[in-house]
Specification:
The protein has a two-stranded antiparallel ribbon. It is mainly alpha-helical. A hairpin with a 3-residue loop joins strand 1 and strand 2. Helix 2 crosses helix 3 and helix 8 packs antiparallel against helix 9. The N and C termini lie far apart (about 50 Å). It has 2 domains: about 70 residues, Winged helix-like DNA-binding domain superfamily/Winged helix DNA-binding domain (Arc Repressor Mutant, subunit A, Orthogonal Bundle); about 140 residues, Up-down Bundle (Four Helix Bundle (Hemerythrin (Met), subunit A)). It contains 9 helices and 2 strands. Keywords: DNA-binding, Transcription, Transcription regulation. This is GntR family transcriptional regulator. InterPro entries: GntR_C, TF_FadR/GntR_C, Tscrpt_reg_HTH_GntR, WH-like_DNA-bd_sf, WH_DNA-bd_sf. It holds the Pfam family GntR.
């Protein structure tokens, strides 16, 4: 059973982490412990312990004279992590393609339609949420628990290294929706696993390439 102290620490951890992930706290943002403690109606101790936990996660860095700050964006780590995710999701999608159902295909189509609506409304966080749901559906029935856990861990690492709320350009978002349509078609046609794996991997790498071109 958790103690009250542990519960307050975990609450503080979740609040600070969510603010970093959704970019309310941007890289370099200084974490003022006393101010957060007052906001969360707790003592500074649970906040301090939460910050130590976030430091272990790589989300917080301690700087001389500044104290705890949000870790700067690490482009190299982002590139490496997204490249690995492309390989893992491609493999998982190819394995799951053998178990695809009409219901799953319909849900994928619906999610892609919602992504299109979110893009039209310029609701980029919602677009990102639907995008993640879409990809999870393509691989969650792959039948390999270790592979699924590796994808979850890689996504968690991606969340910690991208931080700024990195978003695709609208032109890439539109292209991504089109590629989703193609992936749905490949899945519905029961295309060979190798083709599905290559397409799913290339789809993710296209997002990486768009990021690299944007930041050149």
């Amino acid at each position: 059973m958790k103690t009250s102290k542990q519960s307050k620490q975990q609450y503080a951890y979740q609040v600070i982490r969510s603010r970093i992930i959704d970019s309310r706290y941007e890289p370099g943002h200084r974490i003022i412990i006393d101010q957060l403690a007052r906001e969360l109606n707790t003592s500074p101790i649970p906040v301090r312990e939460a910050i130590r936990q976030l430091e272990a996660d790589g989300l917080i860095t301690f700087r001389p004279y500044s104290g705890a700050v949000v870790t700067p964006f690490n482009e190299k780590a982002y590139r490496e992590t997204l490249s690995v995710l492309a390989v893992l999701e491609g493999m998982a999608a190819s394995l799951a393609s053998q178990n695809i159902t009409a219901e799953t295909l319909a849900e994928l189509t619906l999610l892609n339609s919602r992504m299109s609506d979110a893009l039209y409304e310029l609701d980029f966080p919602l677009f990102s949420s639907y995008n993640r749901q879409f990809h999870k559906l393509t691989y969650e029935n792959c039948g390999n628990d270790y592979l699924l856990q590796s994808i979850v861990e890689t996504w968690e690492r991606l969340d910690t290294v991208k931080q700024r709320g990195i978003m695709m350009k609208p032109s890439r978002m539109k292209k991504s929706i089109e590629e989703h349509d193609m992936l749905i078609q490949l899945l519905s046609e029961k295309a060979p696993k190798q083709i599905i794996e290559e397409f799913a991997r290339k789809h993710k790498l296209n997002t990486l390439q768009a990021f690299l071109e944007k930041n050149q």
